Amino acid sequence: MKNGILLLVLLSHVSFAQSITGKWENKQFGYSFVFNQNGSYNFDFPAQNMRNLSGTYQKSGNTLLIKNAYGTVNYKIQWVGNQLRLSDAQGTWILNKVGGNSLLDESKFPKIIAQSGTLKLTEEGPKTYETIINLVLDKKVTTVDYQSIVAETKRMFLKCPEVILGDIQTAKESFEQILQNGDPNVIGQFRQAFLGQVYQMAVIDQNPDMQVFWKIFDKYLDVVAFDSKSQLVLTSKDLEAYLNYIDLLAVNQGGQKLNLASRKQLSEQTIANFSRLSQNEKKFLSNADLAYQLTKSNLSRFTAQQTQTFRQQFTPQVQLVQTQQMDADFYQRYSRMMLENHVSIMNGIENLGGTGDYWEIKPSYGW
């Protein structure tokens, strides 16, 4: 769709694995699985006299290994939209998520806002756009913003109705998959790949079909660095969160926060060196707000005993930066070790009973 690029076209550039964590059921035949975050599972199939069968599971790519008292089974994982199918030589379990996303239930938005021949655009279309923009921004846009989304969706629909309706359906399914995946790395990857593509098209390439959408993003985001090779964006929000994250780790270990001079210079060096960092370091910085919120929430939930154990087990590889130390080489070493720290921290948090599931700390989706 060269002459009418949509935000949803960007979804083709973003890949992520769906999570099986949660309860899944087949109401027609009366069986259900519950896959817990800690790797345990429960299975119920009353019609076959199987109740609360439990064991462990391990997911690797499109393979699910299940172990219980009766043995081990390897299932092939298939997704049909948001439906989970587990297949082996004996057959296929067909499952639907219990309590799944209803934010984009088409029955909630039946109003027809445009028509081209027999094809109809309902309010579900712009609501889909709005919801994904809210996810990327991590906040709800205003009514005025939404009305501009409605107008732009109508314009594009009347230009290419079949393409637009197909894109809206693809976007809706992709959004529902995101809600089922609690991995903050996956959610962060989606957000940043999406935002980076929008920035490239709207600001760098000056694509006219992206200007309405970018105007909304630009209203809420302050882009301070952009790496054209990886198409990753660093915003002032994530930069501030990165500095707060460093303070959080220091205080948790009984240290002091960054002083104003160090904070200022670290901020400047982050912006100046952003494009020179490794891909993983750039991804970490681009999602620093997500990492900070997840870590802060987990630490605040710990009991006194968990906090003490965490402090004993985790020793940061980097200490507070001193202003006179700061140069490009030092900064790049510092950034690399901060990423390694974060990986160690999240492993430690989960080992102590914390959560690595993003939606568990933001049950309202943040908007």
Key descriptive features of the protein:
single chain, about 375 residues, alpha+beta, Lipocalin, eight-stranded antiparallel beta barrel, two-stranded antiparallel sheet, about 20% strand
Low-confidence stretches: 1-5, 12-16
What gap, in angstroms, lies between the N and C termini? 31 Å
Total beta strands: 12
Number of domains: 3
Strand order of the largest sheet: 1-2-3-4-5-6-7-8
What structural class do you assign from the helix and strand content? alpha+beta
| Relative helix content | 40-55%
Q: Please tell me the overall pLDDT.
A: 82
- β-strand percent reads 15-25%
Order of helices and strands: EEEEEEEEEEHHHHHEEHHHHHHH
- What Rg, in angstroms, do the CA atoms define? 23 Å
Count of helix runs: 12
Largest sheet: 8 strands, antiparallel, barrel
Large-scale geometry: flat
